[in-house]
Amino acid sequence: MGLLHKLFSYQYITHEHLAGLDRYKYSCIDSSPLSRYVMHPFWNFLVELYPKWLAPNLLTFVGFLCLIVNFLLFSIYDYSFYGYCANQEDCVNLQNLTKNQLYFQNNLNKFETIPSYICSCIPQWLWMVLSVCQFLSHHLDGTDGKQARRTGSSSPLGELFDHGLDSWATLFLPVALFSIFGRNEPFGITAFSMYGLLWLILGSFIISHWEKYNTGVLFLPWSYDLSQVGMTFLFFGTFLFGQKIWYFRIGPILFTQFVVVVIYVASIGLSLPFSLYNMYVAYTNKSFKQKSIYEGVRPIFSTLYLFVVQLIWIKYSKINILDLEPRAFFWLTGTLFSNISCRLIVAQMTSTRCQIFNWTLIPLTVIVSMFTLNLEKSVFAPFLTPQSEVYSLYFMSVLITLAHIHYGICMVRQICDHLNIYCFNITSKPMKKSD
Known about the structure:
Blueprint: H1 2-7, H2 15-22, E1 28-29, H3 33-47, H4 56-77, H5 88-92, H6 124-151, H7 156-169, H8 172-181, H9 191-215, E2 218-219, H10 223-241, E3 249-250, E4 253-254, H11 255-269, H12 272-284, H13 293-297, H14 301-316, H15 321-324, H16 326-350, H17 361-372, H18 386-419
Parallel strand pairs: 1-2
Antiparallel strand pairs: 3-4
Helix pairs in contact: 2-16, 3-6, 4-6, 4-7, 4-8, 6-10, 7-16, 8-9, 8-10, 9-11, 9-12, 9-16, 14-16, 14-17, 16-18, 17-18
């Protein structure tokens, strides 16, 4: 216990952060019609069913764990996003299969049976479990703040804990959508297309918090509740009718293409223009929180850097790393993004200067450089094998995950000590005796 205590006692939060946290006042605007007229009335009813001893942060954490369960189940049953058939009979019958996007589509005649990595065969019952987990995650996340106000336990930690986990949860929606549609021609989605959709969702999240960093007000994007409800129904519909229910056309376009367009409109059309306008208004009426435009754009540098470096890796990888290991690549991107977002959230909640560069991007840059630059004649050449590139992706995923968890635990412990509260218990800590 002593070793664990020391391990998670690192102080990421400075005294300046803690002082800013003491002055923090929550300011949020949710103008989504779905949220105002459907979700909030339902959540107001639901929260009254909770016992008053139930800590709001526990609701937040359990909701996040539901998404982790979904991700793990998908990783077990459909690691490479090929699982589109309902049963094993479909897998062994070539006539029931559409050609997938990669190697298999050009070598169909070479197989007497379908390789397991091509056809994962997601069991039908799994979609019901996924739908329930998605439903619970959405509504637990929607009621945590109401439970905090109901029990008089609201604190800056609650908002930081909620939004910090939300930044990681942005990864799971597009990854789940990829498993629903698969990457099979002609109805599926390519790994690169889904990676673009992932960045649209990540961008919507970071833009809303970048906006708050500059305006002091969090304007919740309309796309959030819409996407959560939509995913619940997509899972449930797949449970009832199978994945092939989504393989149809709406006029001249595929349903999957229609969904892609909806996500583009929701992520860009309902997020970026409004955020830029709100920041412009704040700048013109002198309510802009930063001293200059340069200070205002500092928070997005790390996110843009991450996007560019990952794009370089995808473009110049000699083994087509995104198509070969999409799940690990998505996980690494989402976890790096979450760490960058959490530091922005801390900065905007404490009215401190956001760091311009996240240290986790340094090992990423080194690895990407090793496998994209022309180093065939260097001393590193014997080590730069296709297998080592995959192992490097795994290594980075584990390293960044552990670093992010360490950051989160240490930060929560430090804020709990400062506010004299527990994270998962409403009661206050005993007062420390002064010397």
